[in-house]
Design goal:
With about 325 residues, the protein is α+β, with helices and mostly antiparallel strands. The chain contains seven helices and 21 strands. The strands form four sheets. It has a six-stranded antiparallel beta barrel with strand order 8-9-10-13-12-11. Belongs to the peptidase S1C family.
Length: about 325
């Protein structure tokens, strides 16, 4: 229910990808009041941030390997050659190795070697956690903004086909592909898009989680393409409030909010209101666990799924589809 309402509202508002050839940036807010300085974190992590320039725009990137940068697919578009500018002011060429439009990720090999690799955290943050965004909004290289995690498991009409982190850290055109950092300086997401105030939004930015980023980029580097196993269901974490509201007795699992008509989940027997507690013989404590199972699975694979339906434990089998 909630993803459908969110998607409908965002469809009305319109999605703005944050490359520097788009509309003006939103007025930012969200810096944590009373928080200590993050100058040391920025100093330590800035060398792993880069600016990615193409003929008709500019975006950001993060050092993934000593000679590989990750950025957004919509930053590089159809370009095979880009220019990379580094935190020390130097610049080099870069070759786009592979892209994945569904996740909106791309990998670029840099002419410069021995780059400092960023530290990535695959653990999802919590709503309310402090975050920093580093990028080149409107071409202003290595700009830092601060905010909090506003929500998890977001989806955007016309956006990447993965669940996103929502943040109120100011994100503007040119931030695309840059790092969303936790307070320790670990990359928790790749900045993706924002919705501008002109559409009625206030500090609505989105980032691709690092777990998804690392999985997709590994496949891009090894195989040059990515197949996305597809469940066909919208899921939510079980909070005490949700358990109380819907009378759910199980304390862990992923709540099925919606099932896509004629999708793999529906064909396998999943229903809205089910609580997924196990997949492929792995316990499910929340949505993140389901995503991890999907990332490690193959398109067409038939996976066992255990759900709590009321007071009963039901065993199902779902044949994963492909996006």
């Amino acid at each position: 229910m909630f993803p459908r309402v969110l998607a409908f509202l965002l469809l009305l508002l319109g999605l703005v990808a944050c490359t520097d050839n788009r509309s003006p940036p939103p007025a930012g807010a969200g810096e944590s009041e009373g928080a200590g300085s993050y100058a040391d974190v920025v100093t330590r992590t800035a060398p792993s941030a880069v600016t990615v320039r193409v003929e008709d725009g500019v975006g950001s990137g993060v050092v993934l390997r000593s000679d590989v940068v990750v950025t957004n697919e919509h930053v590089v578009k159809t370009n095979r050659q880009v220019r990379i500018r580094y935190a020390d002011g130097q610049e080099s060429g870069g070759e786009v190795l592979a892209t994945d439009p569904l996740s909106d990720l791309a990998v670029v090999r840099t002419e410069r070697k021995n780059l400092p690799v960023a530290e990535f955290s695959t653990e999802l943050p919590r709503p309310g956690d402090t975050v920093l965004a580093i990028g080149s909004p409107l071409g202003l290289e290595f700009t830092v903004t601060a905010g909090i995690v506003s929500g998890l498991h977001r989806t955007l009409p016309g956006g990447p086909q993965v669940e996103l982190i929502q943040t109120d850290a100011p994100i503007s055109p040119g931030n695309s592909g840059g790092a969303l950092l936790d307070s320790a300086g670990r990359v928790i997401g790749i900045n993706e898009a924002y919705i501008p105030p002109s559409q009625g939004a206030v500090s609505l930015g989105f980032a691709i989680p690092s777990g998804v980023t690392l999985d997709v980029t590994e496949k891009l580097l090894s195989a040059g393409k990515v197949e996305h196993p597809y469940l066909g269901a919208s899921l939510g974490d079980l909070t005490p409030e949700i358990r109380s509201r819907f009378g759910i007795t199980t304390e862990r699992g992923a709540l099925v909010l919606e099932v896509e008509p004629a999708g793999p989940a529906e064909a396998g027997g999943l229903r809205a209101g089910d609580v997924v507690v196990e997949m492929k013989d792995q316990q499910v404590g929340g949505v993140q666990d389901v995503q991890a199972v999907l990332r490690s699975s193959r398109v067409g694979e038939r996976i066992p799924v255990s759900v709590r339906r009321g007071d009963e434990l039901t065993q199902l089998t779902v044949a994963l589809g492909s996006r």
